[in-house]
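## Example record

The block below lists the input lines for one assembly entry, exactly as stored, with component labels intact.
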Amino acid sequence: KGSKKYTAVDKWNRQLNSLYIAIASRVC
Amino acid sequence: TDAIYFYDEAGQAQVQQEKPWANDPHFFHKVRISALALLKMVAHARSGGTIEIMGVMQGKIDGDTFIVMDAYALPVEGTETRVNAQADAYEYMVDYSQTNKQTGRLENLVGWYHSHPGYGCWLSGIDVSTQMLNQQYQDPFFALVIDPTRTVSAGKVDIGAFRTYRQGYKPPDEPLSEYQTIPLNKIEDFGVHCKQYYSLDITYFKSSLDCHLLDLLWNKYWVNTLSSNPLLGSRDYVSGQISDLAEKLEQAENQMAHLRLGSFLMPSHRKKDEESQLTKITRDSSKIAVEQVHGLMSQVIKDSLFNSVCP
Amino acid sequence: MASSSSSGLTFKLHPLVIVNISDHYIRIKSQLQHSETPDSSSANGGGPSTAADLRVFGCLIGVQCGRTVEIFNSFELVYDSSSHSLDRAYLEKKQELYKKVFPKFYILGWYSTGNDADESDMQIHKSLMNINENPVYLVLNPTINHSQKDLPITIYESELHVIDGIPQSILVRSNYTIETVEAERISIDHVAHLKPSDGGSAGTQLAAHLTGIHSAIKMLNSRIRVLHQYLMAVQRGDMPLDNSLLRQVSSLLRRLPVIDSEKFRDDFLMEFNDTLLITYLAMFTNCSSIMNEVVDKFSTAFDKHT
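Predicted C-alpha cells for the full assembly:
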C-alpha cells in the first residue's frame, strides 16, 4: 500500500542528494 | 442578470456578417462561461478518468467576448491521438444541434473543449492544428482545456481557454502567462507550440435562479465539503508528480555537470537556462507540498472535531 | 397525493440536474419575455402566454443500483400542449444520442417546473412507464423566495392505492439526498462563490481552502445549536417530546468519537508523516536551488575567466 508513492519519494530523495553533491562540488 | 440568456438571432447574424475578428488575430480576449456549461464540462472531463474526452460549446459573441451558454459531450475519446478528432462526431453534432433547436437552444457552436488529465491546461501540437483548422472553417471558435485530475488535487477548477494565431503570424511579445507544471514527457510538445496561441481570460456567470438554488444547495453539500479527502483521492497523481519531479531534478543535475565541465567554453546565457529550470523545479515541489499540506490540514481539523470528543 | 413513499427506494440527486432545470427554465422564460407573438415560444409547445404560466419539461437520466436511484443528468423534452403529452419521437432520438456518450445512464423519469405536482401530470407519468416501470417525477419550484431554507425540489414516485374501492396510481412524495462527486462539488463551489480560475498567491489559495472548511464547520455548528435548543426546549417543557428524535440524537452522541482505533491512528499518522516528509523534501529542493543561485552569483561576481 502506497509503495508507488514511497518509490517516487525515494527517487526524489536520491536525486536531491546527488544535486546537493553537484552544487557542493561547484563551491569547492 | 438573466438578460444574457436571451439569444438575439438577428444580432448574432449581424456579427457573423461583419466578422471583426477576420483582420485582428488578437481580437478575442475574454470568455464568459455559464454555471451549467462549467458543471457539465468538468463532470464530463472527470468521468473520462485518464482518457482525454471531448465536447463542444454553444453560445454567442459579445464584442471581444465568447459567451458559453451550454456544452455537450461528443462520443470521441483520445483527442491527442489525431488532429480534428471531432470529425468522427460530425453526424452526432448535426443530430444534436437539430434536437437542441427544437427545445429552444438556438445558440451556435463557439468552441470545443477537451481534457488533459494530469498534465495541465495548454495546447499540444495536435490541439493547435485542430484549433487552427477550426478557426479557418468555423470561426469564431475557441479551444478550452480542463484538467480534471489537477482540479480534484488542487481543490479548484483547472481550466484554460485559447485561440491560435494564423499560420505565419508572428505574435508580439506577451507577458508570461501563469506558470503551470508541465510533465517532462510533455515539455517539448508544450515548448514548441506555446507561441502559436494565446490565452483568453475566463469569467463565469449564473442566473438569478442559479444563485438562489446554489445558495440553498450549500445547505446540503456542506457535508460533502467536510467529508472530502484530497489526500486519498489523488494519491496516484501525486506519486506521478513526485516521480516526474525526480526526473526533472536528474536532468537539471546532468545539465549542471555539463555546465561545470564546459564553463570555459559555454556562453553565459546557458547558466540562466539551467537556473530557471531549477527554479521551476522548486516551484513544482512547493506546489506538491502545498497541496499535500492543505489536504492534511483538513484531516487534522476533522480529527480534532470528531475524534477528540469524549462522550 | 399521499404524503410519503413506502417503496424503500433511496434517491440521490446530483447538482447538475438542478442547474440544468434552472437553466432550461430561465432560458425559455427570457425568450418568452422578449417574444412579441405567442408562436415564438414553440420550444414549450406554444403553451404559456406569460412567463408566470411557464412550465418546462425534461427527462431525468442516471443509474439505478438495487434500491438506490442516482439521478446524474437531465435533458430537455418537447411538450405538446394540445395532447398534454411529451413528444415521444424526440425523447427517443435524444435518448439515442445520450446513450452514445453516457452508455451507463438510463431514463429514470421526468421533470417539470411548478409549485407542485398537478393531477394532469399523471398522464405524462403513465406514458413514461413503458420506458421505466417506476419512473421518478421531479418538480422544481422556480419562484425565488429568500426566506426558504430548503431546496424547492420535490421528488414523486407513483404508487398503487385503493381509493374509494378503485385501485389508482397516485404520486407520492419521496425523500432524496444531494450527492456530489468531488469534481462536481469543486465546480459548484467555484461558480457559487465565483472564484477566479487563476492560481493566485499561496496565501490566496490557503485562504480559499480554509474558508471552505470554515463555512462547512460553521454549518455543522449551527445544526448542532438547533438540536441543542430543541433539547433545552423539551427539557423546559416548551416543546413536545419526540422519542424518535431523541433516539437519533442519542445515537449520534454515542457515535463520538467517530473513529478511535489503533489502525486509524497508524494510518492517520502515516499520512501525517508522509506530508511532512514531502514538505521537508520540497524545502530541501528550495534550499538547493537558492544555494545554486548563490554559487552562480558568486562565480559571476568573482569570475577569473572573463
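The mean pLDDT of chain A is 88. Residues 16 and 22 of chain A are 10 Å apart (CA to CA).
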